[in-house]
Amino acid sequence: MSRYTFEICVDSVESCVAAEAAGAHRVELCAGLLEGGLTPSFGTLVEARRAVEIGIMVLIRPRGGDFCYSDTEFRVMQEDVRLAKELGADGVAIGILNPDGTVDVERTGQLIELARPLSVTFHRAFDMARDPHEALEAVLKLRCDRLLTSGQEASALEGSEVIKDLVKRAKKHLIIMPGGGIRERNLERIAKLTGATEFHFSASEAKDSRMTYRNGRVFMGGTLRPPEFSHGGTSEARIQAFMSRLG
Known about the structure:
247 residues; alpha/beta; single chain; 8 helices; TIM Barrel
């Protein structure tokens, strides 16, 4: 068996099914991938849990933008953690920062306490922290199970030196999982450069809309918007291509 673990970032039940069929170990279930991922609908979680047996990590992120949340937003996150746990999630991906760029240990800790005994990933809020070593110590103190990071760079390849250092510092206390800009062509290189054994990627492909009538004058988003008559989805073939790179 491969010593590597693959987590697929997905935003639909269909993508969960594709990930399982391809042999992925778990998914991170999200919505709003154009915003970097938001908490999915709980209808999606319910149907995903019915559809697949692999692990489902639910992203807990109430909005796009920064990771410094108001009291109201924090209460939303608490309810989302409770519901994810109740509806069959295997874990949650969370992260809160203070205004000064440090990890908000107090409120993140409260979410972790609510989530247990589920698995907990500290997500890429880490990449917006002011200092990676300081943030790593906070994540270790919180006893998270894993840390998802691009090494505080635009991609995991660019951040590979930082990720390598995080792997070394975390030792066996925390799984460091590279994510961000991972492609078939660079996965093997990232694995060799970082020493990581878990990887997070999307393996997405564009899928054409089922609509035969198409009004091209109207758009449902802002100026920067995805195509109206296609949508993203996870490619089973791409996941298999990724995994084959590491045997």
